[in-house]
Amino acid sequence: MGGSLNGAHIPLPPVPPHLPSSLNRLWEVAHNLWWSWYPEARALFEALDRTQWKLTSHNPVRMLREMSPERLAAVAANPSFHRRYDGVLLAFDDYMERRSTWFARKHPEMVDSLIAYFSPEFGLHQSLPIYSGGLGVLAGDHCKESSDLGVPLVGMGFLYPQGYFHQRISADGWQQARYEPFSVSDAPIRPAVLPDGQRVVVQVPVDGRTIDVRVWQVDVGRVSLYLMDTDVESNAPWDRELSARLYGGDQENRILQEIVLGIGGVRVLHALGLRPTVFHANEGHAAFLMLERLRDYREGGLSFEDAIEAVRASTVFTTHTPVPAGHDTFPFTMMEKYFMPFCTSLGIGREQFLELGRAPGSNDAAFNMTVLALQLSGHRNGVSCVHGEISRRMWAHLWPGMSPEKVPIGSVTNGIHVPTWIAPEMRKLYAKYIGPDWMVRHEDPTLWERVADIPDIELWDVRLSLKRKLLWHVNECARQRWIHGEVDPTQVLASGTLLAPQTLTIGFARRFATYKRATLLFQDLERLKRLLQDPWRPVQIIFAGKAHPADEPGKYFIHEVYSMAKDHGFGGHIAFVEEYDIHTAKFLIHGVDVWLNTPRPPQEACGTSGQKAALNGVPHLSVLDGWWAEGYNGANGWAIGGREFDADPAVQDAADREALFQILENEVVPLYYSRDADGVPRGWLGVVRETIRSVTPRFCARRMVKDYTEQLYIPASQQSLSRR
Ligand SMILES: *Cc1c(COP(=O)(O)O)cnc(C)c1O
Predict the structure, then answer these.
(1) Helix (H, G, I), strand (E, B) or coil at 317
(2) Cα(462)–Cα(481) distance, rounded to whole angstroms?
(3) Given ligand 1 and candidates 57, 609, 628, which is best to mutate, with the most ligand atoms within 8 Å of its CB?
(4) Which atom of ligand 1 is nearest to 545's Cα?
(5) Domains 113-414+705-723 and 421-485+497-538+588-699 share a fold
(6) Residues enclosing ligand 1, CB less than 6 A?
(7) Which residues, 6+ apart, have CB-to-CB distance to 169 below 8 Å?
(8) Are 597 and 612 in contact (CB under 8 A)?
(9) What share of the chain is helix, strand, coil (3-state, %, to 5)?
């Protein structure tokens, strides 16, 4: 049985009785998300029943439970299926038991390290709807890559029994949020139990009562992820609801969720018998973990000052947004309500406690989670070079007298988990021309010089086939909604059924926060019409993304986009695809021709969807913000505007809109439609190659997790071990 890097072995849910015993390890593989990034395992599940595979949105646990015994018996009798099954199991066992990982080879002195990675969301797979967007997907990719590299890490998060909302757009263009209870038995999770078989449950004291928290486990390759959930019978009804939804409730709900995440999380690790050397808070939502650890050290006999030093030495904190409203704050009264008993166990007064979440000398009227995290962590980073710089300026007042360049916040630029985000067709093309082992060496830049060897025709054929696949998916989704009588005919058209595979296709998919400026092009409708409706060189744009249910301006943006998609004047060249999740994201980033990003600078901390697109040969067209400020080299896509930003948003928007139209009209469209005798756009494919070559090895999660390990985890772990 596989060796996870950490944690106990926890039994699987019972194997469905109709699964033939000769295939029973399919159940085990389905319960380790490793299958989702190992191509042959994915293909094996698909081969079980191609239609079920699609109908379940690639969910092997659900598929194995629902498949007919006849179909399973037929597969079990098929020798070629058995050969593939044996091959996948061999690879799985080899992966799980491999001792010679990058981490083990490179840092043998650090075998006793354990990193506990706390995040409010994890985006691992569509069958586990506990993420809302970029932050979660990044956390998911971080876990997968840590597993691949052998970095000893456990994840700590929440199981939200109703997850994040599902998105529908009404006929009049407004986003409808639907919450669906998700079925635990259809997801690759199981109750976490102790070696004696007892269910792991911890208690979190709040405001004079106790909340019971139970724990689930998800296997992400060799990494274990623990998810907490308060829907326990012994809890009061309102406490049972507490963890129901991700970002669902009011401020009171939020502080309680964060108390459970931070304080409960530390207790869960204790209960499991794990002793992390490093605690990594991914974003400020988890920062209460630092208070719980302070309390532990105080109870262990350290002075308050020594306890602070001990927590700092072993804590890593990553900040994720340069937008001030993106940082959680709680009124002092609310903090007092929940934390007065804490002050007693810390042996400090109210004022001193509140200072932990307030900048020195400031007259802020609220407790700021980012300030708390920055003050109690000794290893801090932003998520791109520009974001690091901005964070140093933004938080310089926490280090009075220090010049901004010296402020101790570094940066590690985000990257993407390559095996997760590569399209199978591109993977095969790279295997043929870059090298059969390209996937295990993908962070090596010299390897990617070989993109020059991919013949134009083959590259173009694969790109076109991925676009057809995307349009097929869009059509199927529209057909399902139409069959179920959920939409009217204009909605069928607005969802992309008129899109054409030969047309230059721009993708714009992201959270509908206003700073992302989804409607930038709509401020000159006549010019946009001319661009999209050109009979010789047409252009189409696919939009997708959710707005937070409480974000009225964001929902208004969706409404505006949807109106354009329904407007016959655009002739079906604008589409809005509902329910942007990891599944939809894959079709989009694989299938479009250009990935567009228009955040109002400098508000994009990093952005990762453009990296996913680039990996698949989709050039990026973006403002020079976030990762693109590092990634753009003049030949691998296009930059909207320069590196200087105007402080007046209206001026900046007008300038960026003009620049964007000009790039589209004068560069992108002509290059795409300039074909030679065989219809292949040679110049365009030059940009595609340069995109793949320059982006893949630098903006991958492998480079990212190695950076985290060497710049943050190892120093923190050394300090932590030396104190033991
Ligand atoms: C990658 C991804 C994101 C984050 O992309 P950004 O570029 O930061 O907008 C959000 N949602 C999903 C579903 C993703 O896959």
Answers:
(1) strand
(2) 29
(3) 609
(4) 11
(5) yes
(6) 133-134, 137, 510, 580-582, 585, 607-610, 612
(7) 175, 176, 491, 494, 558, 562, 576, 578
(8) no
(9) 50, 15, 35
Taking the CA atoms of residue 615, residue 618, residue 619 and residue 625 in that order, the dihedral angle to the nearest 10 degrees is -60
Spacing, Cα 137 to ligand 1 middle (Å): 7
* Whole-angstrom distance, CA of residue 718 vs CA of residue 716: 5
Q: Vertex 631, ends 629 and 636: CA angle to 5°?
A: 120
Tell how strand 223-229 and strand 153-158 pair up: parallel
8 A C-beta contact, residue 370 and residue 359: no
Mean pLDDT in residue range 495-503: 97
- Going from the Cα of 130 to the center of ligand 1, the distance in angstroms, rounded, reads 14
In tens, the pLDDT along 396-417 reads 999 999 999 999 999 999 999 9
What six digits make up the tokens of 296? 């532990």
Give residue 609 CA to ligand 1 midpoint distance, Å. Answer: 5
Q: Which amino acid residue places its CA nearest to atom 12 of ligand 1?
A: 133
Q: What is the mean pLDDT of the chain?
A: 95
Q: 225, 256, 261: which is closest to 241 by C-alpha? A: 256
* 288 CA from centroid of ligand 1 (Å): 26
Q: What is the DSSP letter of 673?
A: H
> Residue 4: pLDDT above 70?
no
Q: How far is the CA of 644 from the centre of ligand 1 (A)?
A: 25
For 474, the token pair is 């869009």
For residue 610, how far is its CA from the centre of ligand 1 (angstroms)?
9
pTM as predicted? 0.97
Torsion angle of the four alpha carbons 632, 634, 639, 644, in this order, in degrees rounded to the nearest 10: 80
Q: Which CATH superfamily is domain 113-414+705-723 in?
A: Glycogen Phosphorylase B; (3.40.50.2000)
Three-state DSSP at 124 gives coil
CATH 3.10.450.50 correct for 421-485+497-538+588-699: no
- Which residues are within 8 A (CB) of 324 and not within 5 positions of it... i.e. 6 or more apart? 394
Q: Is the pLDDT of residue 3 over 50?
A: no
Dist CA 279 CA 442 (whole Å): 29
| 3-class DSSP state of 116 | strand
Atom 4 of ligand 1, residue of closest alpha carbon: 134
Q: Is the distance from CB of 108 to CB of 124 less than 8 angstroms?
A: no
CA-based end-to-end distance of the chain = 32
**What residue's CA is closest to ligand 1, atom 9?**
510
Domain boundaries, the chain: 21-97, 113-414+705-723, 421-485+497-538+588-699
pLDDT at position 363 is 81
